[in-house]
Backbone:
DNA sequence: GCAAAAGTGTTGGAAATACACCCATGT
DNA sequence: ACATGGGTGTATTTCCAACACTTTTGC
């Protein structure tokens, strides 16, 4: 059980590494998916009720062990596919969590992935599961360290939607500016000025006016837009943002 | 070897998980440290020559397997301690890399940590090791997927020093504004206006003028400053940065 | 015609940028 | 005295924030 950890792994021969893997370094790896959706002007997350006695009645993220023949990303996509039936969704690794006693079955390090999907398009696939879209803001007391993971992913999302066009994955392909603003306001928990918000997005010139309008609204219908991913891809990224802390 | 992956891990009982861990999910976890330093106005990274035949002559990051009784962060700190003798350095997890064939000894997922240290203060400890500070810009062809890991960490650093006061960890406690600017220019690969750079940092009011001056410089000595971490800690973080992508 | 949200411009202040000269020190 | 980098101020521009009224539709 004792291993000479003063040696660099790179200096060990492969046999030594294998031996260590079988003894001192038996750790499971799981992936936990934080699947965000947006509905009724609120940020939602897809959860399941935990069955483990220890966490009875608590909510849990969607996770599974990573098999040794699959990539980490693959594992995340597999889980998403199993839950929502979709495989063309936004998915990104956020970070890993490896506290010693985070899992009752033993030492399991988990890698958190964040996924953004449009709830409307995926509703059918998850109806007969024991899955629930849960409001993010009113959540607490989850199973494992999942509350912590969710918090980290939520902060990650808040940061991320300001610098990358992720938000659109949470909306239908065609959306109104009001919907887009509601999304930002909900995720960031801020109030924004409508005119400045519009100005901002129009000046980016990444929204395509498709000359369609909302229907079935009890007021003047808003214009619908589509996000132009191609144009966005072609923009060059700046590496200088300005020092500010 | 076949496992019913359609079941959620949360729905499996603990015995099933353990069984799976012993068979289908045997994956090693390692930590790789990207240890950055700053010297001669250049960003450096601490590397070792790989001994594995497969990677003969190539450079490798400092990594080791994570033992099952240690936290991920602990493992990273252990490696740092072993290499540099320091344990009060800046260290942060960046992300994990889990491609199937990234390691010749089998399936090993690695978690990359970024560390920033002041080369001068740590020089003695690493003299008699087979370690080398290597310029980041001229590096290529590393062992494993370490080039990729380094690239990701470098980008992470570029982003990070603009929004958090990490950079100071790369400098002596007392530094001149010129040194600070050189640091930013080297890491970001940009040219900055000296006056505006000063204005920026002075307006943050986080630099303490300690009324000392450079010595042994062949020109007018510059004032030395210290970064005031306490004051920084007390500042409240903003969550709204402005949409821009 | 009324309720409800869509759509639209201007202005003032703050911050970022661009830019050039004198100063202190070592040799 | 001279070479080297330290130190400083101002004018311009750009970006962000604040703010109110008219328009269109459904009921």
Residues:
């Amino acid at each position: 059980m004792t291993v000479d950890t003063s040696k660099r792994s790179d200096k060990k021969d492969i046999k030594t590494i294998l031996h260590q893997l079988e003894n001192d370094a038996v750790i499971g790896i799981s992936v936990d998916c934080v699947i965000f959706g947006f509905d009724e002007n609120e940020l939602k997350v897809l959860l399941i009720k935990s069955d483990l006695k220890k966490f009875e009645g608590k909510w849990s993220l969607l996770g599974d062990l990573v098999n040794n023949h699959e990539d980490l990303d693959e594992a995340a996509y597999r889980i998403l596919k199993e839950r929502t039936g979709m495989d063309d969704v936004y998915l990104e690794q956020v970070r890993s969590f490896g506290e010693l006693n985070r899992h009752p079955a033993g030492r399991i390090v988990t890698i958190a992935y964040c996924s953004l999907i449009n709830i409307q398009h995926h509703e059918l696939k998850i109806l007969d599961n024991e899955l629930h879209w849960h409001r993010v803001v009113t959540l607490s007391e989850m199973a494992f360290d999942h509350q912590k993971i969710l918090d980290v992913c939520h902060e990650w999302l808040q940061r991320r939607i300001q610098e990358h066009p992720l938000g659109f994955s949470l909306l239908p392909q065609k959306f109104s500016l009001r919907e887009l603003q509601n999304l930002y306001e909900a995720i960031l928990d801020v109030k924004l000025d409508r005119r400045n918000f519009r100005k901002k997005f129009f000046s980016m010139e990444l929204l395509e006016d498709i000359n369609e309008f909302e229907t079935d609204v009890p007021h003047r219908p808003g214009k619908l837009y589509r996000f132009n991913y191609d144009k966005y891809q072609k923009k060059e990224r700046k590496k200088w943002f300005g020092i500010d802390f």
Notes: Confidence is low (pLDDT under 50) at residues 1-9 of chain B.
